[in-house]
Amino acid sequence: MRIALFTETFLPKVDGIVTRLRHTVDHLQRNGNQVLVIAPDGGITEHKGAKVYGVSGFPLPLYPELKMALPRPSIGYALEEFQPDIIHVVNPAVLGLSGIFYSKILNIPLVASYHTHLPQYLQHYGLGMLEGLLWELLKAGHNQAVLNLCTSTAMMEELTAHGIERVQVWQRGVDTEFFHPDLASMEMRSRLSQNHPESPLLLYVGRLSAEKEIERIKPILEAIPQARLALVGDGPHRQALEKHFAGTNTNFVGYLIGQELGSAFASADAFIFPSRTETLGLVLLEAMAAGCPVVAARSGGIPDIVTEGVNGYLFEPTADIQDAFTEGVGGAIAATVRLLEQKQERDMIRQNARREAESWGWAAATSQLQDYYQKVIFSKQLTTHRK
């Protein structure tokens, strides 16, 4: 197959969506497909044998790490030259709209996928009044597709409830060789804990942005005075978080990549994930693959991954981020304390988390995606033949 993949974000950016896309492109190419990635220009022209067509853009005011690339006629020329069998638009927002447009103009079957829970993001940027309008825009865009993919059953139910049609789950995936318990090291533990390797080590990995609600970790840290917290990643909310966590045992590590990232997961005692806006939470799978027990909000796609008391802990999230004594934060505190105190139970959680992750490789996830593509292409051919 020849697959044109439109995405609003790609390398060199580091996030869960890019991680999924780069592994997907890699496995699609390995399986004999040809992929053309159309993305905001990041200075990359090729990835794992796939051509990357960069479209110039400008930084988003609220999120400078993200570039907004506007549709332009040259994209149509690139598609006509590539002659795709199918177009896949990832989180169609701006650039993805050109993928929807050209699928109609060139009569190419269209698949769309939903990875970022944008309607829930709005409240964290003071734009909650636009949520209804955004759902209508998402519905209008996604319903142009023959098939809409999302990353969890919870998201499938929510998209369907908001009028998005023909929704299926695109299964999760994780690199179980790259993220492995054997990468645990005292050197990394010392680095993350700022030379206090004997202290309980809590970890967060991901964007430092408002919608991730990282502030919710502070009451947990304060309830366990001897604990250290390492925040791995960067983003537009970093400065505010540095003020929020001032005076606590918090280390702003910045980005880690490659084996260092795998080692960070494997070296920590608990991975704390308070976000309520996750469509899946790929970093949770990475933590579990590395044998790091997770404590996460029971929200979005997270319960699809974490089974309470078996391979991690879930707490009930609450609306008020600032209240340190709410049931949600209290639940998170209790779960974290239990995890740190019960070594035998913690070891069982580690083993079960690794076992769960081992059943979700990228090869299987990409094979499922190829099957979806083939069914969509066949359906299009059948419809054309009947006409």
Summary, kept brief:
The protein is an alpha/beta fold. It has helices at 16-30, 73-82, 95-105, 118-121, 131-142, 153-161, 186-192, 217-223, 238-244, 258-267, 282-289, 327-341, 343-358, 362-386; strands at 2-7, 34-40, 46-47, 50-55, 57-60, 63-69, 86-90, 110-114, 147-150, 167-169, 201-205, 228-232, 250-254, 270-273, 294-297, 313-315. Helices cover 40% and strands 19% of the residues.
Overview features:
387 residues, alpha/beta, Rossmann fold, 8-stranded mixed β-sheet, 14 helices, 19% strand, Glycosyltransferase_grp1, Glyco_trans_1, glycosyltransferase activity, Glyco_trans_4-like_N, Glycosyltransferase family 1 protein
Walkthrough of the structure:
- The chain folds into 2 domains: 2-173 and 361-386, Rossmann fold, CATH 3.40.50; 181-358, Rossmann fold, CATH 3.40.50.
- 40% of the residues lie in helices and 19% in strands.
- It is built from 14 helices and 16 strands.
- The strands form 3 sheets. Strands 3-4-2-1-7-8-9-10 form an 8-stranded mixed sheet, sandwiched between helices. The chain has a 6-stranded parallel sheet with strand order 13-12-11-14-15-16, sandwiched between helices.
- The longest helix is centred in the last third of the chain and has 25 residues, at 362-386.
- The protein is globular and about 65 Å long.
- Residues 319-327 have low confidence and may be disordered.
